[in-house]
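Ticket #4471: structure export looks truncated?
Reporter: QA, pipeline team
Priority: medium

Steps to reproduce: submit the single chain below to the structure queue and open the exported record.
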Amino acid sequence: MPLSRVVRLGSAVTSGFACALAFPPWDVGLIAFVGLVPLFLALEGATPRQAAWLGYATGLSFHLAAIWWVINTMTTYGRLPLGLSLVALALLCGVLAGYTAGFAWLLVAGRGRLKYSRAVEPILAAGLWTALEFLQTYLLSGFPWNLLGYSQYRQPTVRLLAAAAGVYGISALVLLVNGALASGLLLALRPQGEMPRWRGVLLPAAFTCVAILATIAYARVIWRDPTGGPSIRVGLLQGNIDQSMKWERSYQKATLDIYERLARQAAVEKPALIVWPETAIPFFLRRDGELSARVYGLPAQLGTPMLIGSPDMGDDGLAYNTAFFLGREGQIRGRYDKRHLVPFGEYVPLHRILFFLDKLVVGIGDFGRGQSATVFSLDGARFGVMICYEIIFPAEVREFVRNSAQFLVNITNDAWFGRSGAPYQHLAMASLRAVENGTYLIRAANTGVTAVIAPSGEILAQTDIFTEATLHGTIRLRQGETPYSRYGDVLAWICLVFLIAYAAALARCAWRVRE
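Actual output as written to the record:
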């Protein structure tokens, strides 16, 4: 039955908003398995051009609903006027929506040019979507925020699939289910008198059932907790320092007073490691004599090693976002410099073209990049540190595990997000990193969410946002490895190769038509 333009557009927008509901702060994760069905229905009978616009509408509505918090970041801390912040949000969401538009165009263009059986379309859709998510992760620095697979971070069975195929495997499963359900609905909605083509729905339905059963089998039978090593106690600090005051010189001592008090509270339970958040020290730890001496003296006084976030001035004259590992004696035993910087937050992409942004957003464009995935040793227990944004890049986190890290630490600020769903979205992505690599992951955030996450993705303990707190947890060291930590993004690379072949086939068909 042909659909009007208004109905098609409404269906596409409905898909975008429905998928947004699957993420924090709403957390209705299971809706993701049906959220894209309206888009699939809207694409039925559409031209490739119409499909692209429908996909764009879905992507735009999804991202506007999911990352509206960007406005608060830019107006409150970037000091941009509200009007410019709205424009910047629209541009960011518009770029991200392009991936959904590309998905819809490729899918519909393939129907007409490649003449494939509609029975395999849900499988093709899953492959195309997964490949485009993979591109979104790394293309032009990447912004893989709220990939569809993250919607399942609270589903104890589904999330374990990440240990085998990463977050992209969960996205593929969600797409497959959506496509199969849409095929079933289209079959049911055929006008009376038409012979139903059951083979058009049986294959995707059967493949989907197999995929779901395989996921359940992996989660319940095959998956094993790789952390069989010794247990250690950790203490995590959440200072709740107001971002607008954080870098004021007059507030530096007050900030240090807060963290010193929290560290002493955390030390009461005799943890093996105390973790401070990203840039918890609002001065150069290696350069500020009096205040730095207080920091160096704290591990010695408490008899506890500490991981402390601080800016650092390198010998090259560049500032670095750094995690310093201080031993019990108070000396620096190691450092890690953030490698994946935040675009427009820690550097300006295409700086020669976008030079004017230096004047619009305070404090960007002057950070150096770290070079290596440093792994620290805590009395033989090895761990890697991801600073803030780095935790959302699966392959980069896996690199620490390949370098023999036995547990993972994420230090972050998250004050930029305000009181929104963003801190919990960030936590959701960290949760999947723990599952992928079969490791405990501990997280210290300035304003929250500070948390302890098990290798199964279960959040064992967490703080509220915008509260001053200490959090303790007991973790175990990783001894084995997951399929993902061993083989990485094999599924995503296969899907990317498929996307290239699919696009080449479309281009070849178009060339033949021109001839």
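Status: closed, not a bug. The export was complete when the record was re-opened. Leaving a note from the reviewer for reference: The first strand starts at residue 231 and ends at 238.
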